[in-house]
Amino acid sequence: MQYPKPFTDRMQRMLGEEEFSIFLEALQQAPPVSVRINKAKAAPAPGLQPVPWTETGFYLPERPLFTLDPALHAGAYYVQEASSMFVEQALRQAVNLSEPLHVLDLCGAPGGKSTHLASLLSPQSLLVSNEVIRSRASILAENIAKWGSGNVLVTSNDPRDFSRLNDFFDVMVVDAPCSGEGMFRKDAHAMEEWSEENVNLCAQRQQRILMDVWDALKPGGVLIYSTCTWNEQENEQNIAWLAEQEGAESIKLQLQPEWGVVPAQLEGVEGYRFYPHRVQGEGFFIAVVRKAGEEQPLHGKSKKKKYKLSIAGKKEQALVGDWLQQPGQYTFVQHGEKISAIPENLFEAADEVYQHLYVVYAGTELAEIYGKKLKPLQGLALSQYLDRSVFTTAELDLEQALRYLKKEDTCLGTSGNDWLLLEYKGLPLGWAKQIGNRINNYYPKEWRIRMELPAELPSGSFVIG
Ligand SMILES: C[S@@+](CC[C@H](N)C(=O)[O-])C[C@H]1O[C@@H](n2cnc3c(N)ncnc32)[C@H](O)[C@@H]1O
């Protein structure tokens, strides 16, 4: 593999002659495959090797055809590169996760960090998961819905729009768009795109992004910055610049020597690098800073009278009222024909977000009103808090599950006139409507599996137990 010379020259300088050759060798190896389990839905298959810095990450011995595992579509796990799971250490070490927090994941799509954050935060916390590119925000919303946490708002805004939410967030994750050197072995395109000029442009864009969102972080709040590149400009130089501009204080993380994570210091700022010859993962950089000033308690109830969110009508509320476990903990809101559940204690904060940002997905989407009836929505099927006892369920075998996920109409040998919650290994996949002995498939069209099924299907899930 021919790497750009300025890149190899710099890596040689950063690593030294001997380590550089081991690094180059590691770049030729196949990347490890790892997943993060959604413990609210499933347990890992026995015997999987854990990713050492997270409680829910595991390596797989080989890369399966993930598309053919219905458990993935059910949100039972997320396929994620292992180094980036280190965000868990940053959060656990720098933030009190048992408190109710307002958290922003600014560069959220496709949702690796956001689904991870959703698993780590308490249900009393609000996660705003943002993605500026609209088409990517839809993919983010899909992955958030599949994860099923219910305390997430997906927004699609430019970083500068967040200045409207002054001092709102306790924690921000900025997983910035970068030159992607750490992805060279996974993605040949990253290398083709690479140039010194692009590194400079990325570094400037990252500074702009950091400045744009900084005012939305509360005094005393924590910002976690990460990239998947190794150069200093996009990493510690940017964080040193932020510390100098804003008086942010660098937070040092405790590392286990066996992790193989390499600390990086610059002008009193601490960062952490991940190299493929030292960790089982791709290239990554992470740093954590705290904004100067006293931590403020969460905003109490505001005196605001005019809400942007509309409460669903009594009739509609009565219909959806028993679909989630502990329905008393939610406020049911209506947006057009759609009814969603927002955790009651997050209503004020969610409304604040609605006042200022473009919200793509909120809480748990429960139902759509059509005429005098309600159609259950995909968000409900995939919710971690769905009360399954309220619905008629049908267990599918692997082929039936995959055909359902391809959005084919099927016949299950059942009859009736009811909504059916279709499951695979007890994991809800989505809705179908039974009309006599016919089944209409209500799986979202945009989410469907597009590949042709092979003649021989794999034997079950290789990831979950
Ligand atoms: C490294 S990726 C994020 C990966 C994501 N955090 C995850 O873990 O799945 C960076 C994201 O930033 C978005 N992005 C691109 N330009 C941006 C900008 N100017 N401001 C904010 N985000 C941007 C990209 O669309 C991309 O989704």
TrEMBL record:
Alphabetical GO biological process terms: RNA methylation
Residues that hold S-adenosyl-L-methionine according to the record: E131, D158, D175
CDD domains, per the entry: AdoMet_MTases (cd02440)
Boundaries of every SAM-dependent MTase RsmB/NOP-type domain copy: 1-292
Catalytic residues (positions): C228 (nucleophile)
One Gene Ontology term of the molecular function aspect: RNA binding
Keyword terms: Cytoplasm, Methyltransferase, RNA-binding, S-adenosyl-L-methionine, Transferase
Record family assignment: Belongs to the class I-like SAM-binding methyltransferase superfamily. RsmB/NOP family.
PANTHER family found in the cross-reference section: 28S RRNA (CYTOSINE(4447)-C(5))-METHYLTRANSFERASE-RELATED, NOP2 YEAST -RELATED NOL1/NOP2/FMU SUN DOMAIN-CONTAINING
Protein name (database record): 16S rRNA C967 or C1407 C5-methylase, RsmB/RsmF family
Organism of provenance: Pontibacter chinhatensis
